[in-house]
Amino acid sequence: MPKLTLEELRKLRENTKKEIAKRDVSDKSILVLVGMGTCGIAAGARETLQAFLEQIEKKGLTNVVIKPTGCMGFCYVEPTVEIIMPDMPDTLYGKVRAEVVEKIVDEHIIRKQLVSEFIFDKPAVDIVK
After folding, report:
1. Is 64 exposed, middle or buried (0-12, 13-18, 19+ CB in 10 A)?
2. Does the 28-127 domain belong in CATH 3.40.30.10?
3. Which of 3, 19, 49, 111 could serve as 34's disulfide partner, Cβ 3.0–4.6 Å?
4. DSSP helix/strand/coil, 6
5. With bands split at pLDDT 50, 70 and 90, how would you rate the model's confidence at 79?
């Protein structure tokens, strides 16, 4: 194995710090949970998770954390994604393929508008505060 130079080590440290910061939830107000049960993975949840990570970075959103989670119980609409954020109802999206992620990020996370055609569960209007 070749030895790393000091500059390569510094670059590796900075990249690692950035990756760790992405997972830190302490200063983030928006949580995106991607269902990564076996049914979700089989339906493409890994690609969905990666697409969210790419879109959040591309759009420079620093208040969003993306986390994998287990089965959400909606196997028939995998991949599933739950978004929890202030001033919006907790929303479960289904059939979230990688190509749908940008629309959800733009409309739900940035513009605070629900993406109706992919919603599979949300609280009734009378219980949303």
Report:
1. buried
2. yes
3. 49
4. helix
5. very high
- Encoded tokens for 61: 């959103």
Contact by Cβ (8 Å): 81, 35: yes
Q: Any idea where the domains of the chain sit in the sequence?
A: 28-127
**Looking at residue 70, what DSSP letter applies?**
S
**Cβ neighbours for 44, distance < 8 A, ≥ 6 positions apart:** 78, 79, 97, 98
**Is residue 128 pLDDT above 50, yes or no?**
no
Residue 58 to residues 44, 62, 121, Cα–Cα distance (Å): 21, 11, 28
* 31-59 exposure pattern, b = at least 16 Cβ within 10 A, e = fewer: bbbbbbbebbbebbbbbbbebbbebbeee
Task: Compute CA 121 distance to the chain's CA centroid, rounded to the nearest angstrom.
Answer: 17
